[in-house]
Amino acid sequence: MPQQVNRLAIVFLILVSSLIGARHYLVPTTFGDLGHYRAAAIDANASKPLIYAGHEACGTCHPDIVKTHDEARHRSVACEVCHGAQAAHAESPGEHQPPAPRQRGFCPLCHGYDPSRPTGFPQIDPVSHNPGRPCITCHNPHAPVPPHTPQECSACHGEIARTKALSKHAALPCNMCHQVAERHKITPLLSTPSKPQTREFCGKCHGQEAKAPAEIARVNLSTHGERYVCWQCHYAHSPEAQ
Amino acid sequence: MQDIAQQLTNILQQVSGYIYPNEVELQWGLLVVVYPYITGLVAGAFILASLERVFNVKEVEPTYRLALLTALAFLLIAPLPLLLHLGHPERSFEIFLTPNVHSAMAMFGFVYAWYLAVVLLLEIWFDYRKDLVLWARNERGLRKWIHLMLTLGATDLSEQSVEFDRKAVRFITIMGIPSAFLLHGYVGFIFGSVKANPWWSSVLIPVVFLFSAMVSGIALVLMLYLLTGLVRRSFEMTCLDKLASFLFYALVVDFSLEILDFIHRLYEAEESIKILGTMISTRLFLSLVVLQTLAGTVLPLICLAFVSPAFGSRALVRFPDELRRLLYLASATLIQIGIFSTRWNVVIGGQLFSKSLRGLTVYKMELLGLEGFFVAVLLMAAPFFLLYILVKILPPWKEEITTPVPEQVPSD
Amino acid sequence: MSTEANRMQSEPESPQEISHDRREFLKQCAAAAPLLLAIVQIAEEAAASANDESYKPEEHYYGMGIDVNKCIGCGRCADACKTENNVPREPFYFRTWVERYVLTTDGETVVTSPNGGIDGFPSTMSERGILRTFFVPKLCNHCANPPCVQVCPVGATFITRDGVVLVDKDYCIGCRYCIQACPYGARFLHPITRTAEKCTFCYHRVVRGNVPACVEVCPTGARIFGDVRARSSPLARFTRFNEVQVLKPQLNTAPKVYYANLDGEVR
């Protein structure tokens, strides 16, 4: 063996053994138990304290409110959405008082009108809807049924109403085309209004032989867009729109 | 925390379009640009050195040892930008303890250690061993002890021993070439394998990184050889010409690869092309079009094509020696700027556009601070100081080899 | 104490001095014993509450469902997340956020997420015609084939047996490779711990049988949490009755957040 190789081998052996030794002491004990990670990290993540108590925690001490709340329109709204994270309150109720938002600016976070919100979601214009008065004056937050069931469809379908109001169909009442049960105002998704199904429905006013005022536009139903139903091209709430 | 918040608020105001909320802060900044630049120089300098040993390119023999020492100096500094960039540098050894074999970045520890110990240090040791023994015999004081220690006690200078040294160097150099490819190629793979980022995710990135590394390494050795030669008033023009020719060849390959990537991207015109095009024409115009392409590649290409003897034994246009040297130096400098811009455009560019493909953010380089401009300048200057020390301990000049001159050092 | 130190430094002690020291030491032990016992008890309780014997990770594999048509963009989820998980309140660090998409009639798509949606969205009564507009909540998708886990150099991020991708913040070195590798922008570097962080499906709530904070507070039930594989879980019903999509399926990350009614413009 050439002398160089001997010397180098000694250096190499010293290095490798010190590395192996260091490794034995430095690799964390739980590493590799469950996978290529420290198994102890799972507990580190799992043992953080809860800040939100969860909707089940409130019923223990507030059964009446919870019962009312769970039967009303806000049943899918957790207590802590409005009252803030209350695990601390659930732990020691006397020491931590949950806030109850009473100011007018709070409810529009969800209920202020926004076109990106789904149609039919109850929305109001915060500026013009009973200005100045706190929302809770008329709406019990745990059972927020409006004091008067809205007569107008526009109360919930504002955007449609506004669009229609500027169109040629402005004078038509909503129930001219949609059959609506009263239940729809109470449980809207369980009792949906009907919609026209056939071309002949629109033909009642717009067909050639329709018994309707003369200024209404007429088409020959047998040739005009014969394969389609009318609303595939014409938006019924704003029929003149291109 | 306050100043981070202030900085990010400023950046938030300059965002155009839509970026994911977490993308306001650029994660990999200036230091992560410096790191591939430095390892690129290492790989490039080493490959130049191996040209001489493996491919017997005799003209560049004077640069052999200088290139090795340059590679070592830069390699020793290379981990520093990474360490400074980490959120927890004190835990960095975990990469050696529990490397995730699926992660390209985990390979850093091993590729680096392999390259440093097995390739670079061994090759330098075997090449210098005979001279170390001779120097130690003829010297006194501190230098004698340093050189003696470096021999590791292997002081046998018989013909067999020296022959073994020579064969070992050749063997290690041959092994070192793919190792150098790996050292810088894996950095390219770190970026190229990120499928989430359309600017990075590409088969070509590791190859482009490698060839631009070779370009920058050869350019660096050329600059160092020229500058040290001017200071010591001894260098060979044929060596410089050969270096410039190789620089030209490497630059041609590098440029072709980058053009290929560009054409391919434009042709396929995938969904990301719109935001990437906007990014290049707004945020990256200076660094990509001007610095990387025009000044850093096209200009040196034209210059070297005419000035260096790349197409035969004589240059296309004959320039007097001094002017040629100046042009080589200018080209090499432009190339360094260009390759640095390449790294910048890859690293920073990849983070300037949102993964939603709908917006662009900005990168605000700090001046002070651990990831700031001054630290980066310091990190890039440090290898030169290290090189100076290495050159003093292990002089690479030919004259020193043939007639070792005993240095008088006061022994105390 | 100083006299004892002096005593220890001085020359060999006499037997009386030694037995005196021993007595002192035993007295201190006796005094410390109740304190030690209390500490051990607290540690055991903490460990017990963390390793709830009744929770078996192998029985679960979690995912989330999101119904885009139900989201009203109120931002309560993003707000609750920051509260529950102590995330810095600055607008650069989000474990979950809400995006608003506005598709105009002239073909442009405008996406916004002011402060992640925490303060709600400014009403956009723009002059341009709106073709479609909706809100999309985003969060870590807890991919079954996570690219972030693949690239972590040290094994500081991982996917648990119950399908939750977590970060070991005592092991993370802060290299930020995982943040680069996530196609969904779900990760960020915590400015104080200097480690990577992201949504954990509120793992500390889930192992105790609760739901994540964002699911807890969503007022319209747009977020549904549950077992991906179970036959009866809210998530199973959700994926049975809705045509669900995931984000960026072409990247083959196998996300476990399923979007119903997802628009093609969502990235």
Arithmetic mean pLDDT of chain B: 91
Record the strand order, biggest sheet of chain C. 9-1-11-10
Which structural class is indicated by helix and strand composition of chain C? Answer: alpha+beta
- Across the major sheet of chain B, the strand order is 1-2
Describe the 3D structure.
The complex is a heterotrimer of chains A (242), B (412) and C (267). Helix content of chain A is 32%, strand content 0%. With 242 residues, chain A is mostly helical. By secondary structure, chain B is mainly alpha-helical. Chain B is 70% helix and 1% strand. Chain B contains 16 helices and two strands. A two-stranded antiparallel ribbon of chain B has the order 1-2. The mean pLDDT of chain B is 91. Chain C has two domains: 2-47; 61-260, 2-Layer Sandwich (Alpha-Beta Plaits). Chain C has helices at 2-9, 15-50, 76-85, 147-151, 177-181, 203-206, 213-217, 234-241, and strands at residues 62-67, 96-104, 109-112, 130-139, 157-159, 165-167, 188-189, 196-197, 223-227, 244-245, 257-260. Chain C has a four-stranded mixed beta sheet, covered by helices on one side. A three-stranded antiparallel beta sheet of chain C has the order 3-2-4, covered by helices on one side. In chain C, strands 5-6 form a two-stranded antiparallel sheet. The radius of gyration of chain C is 27 Å and the shape is elongated. Chain C starts with a helix and ends in a 7-residue tail after the last strand. Classes of the chains: A mainly alpha (242), B mainly alpha (412), C alpha+beta (267). Chains A and C meet through helix 2 of A and helix 2, helix 3, strand 2, strand 4 and strand 5 of C.
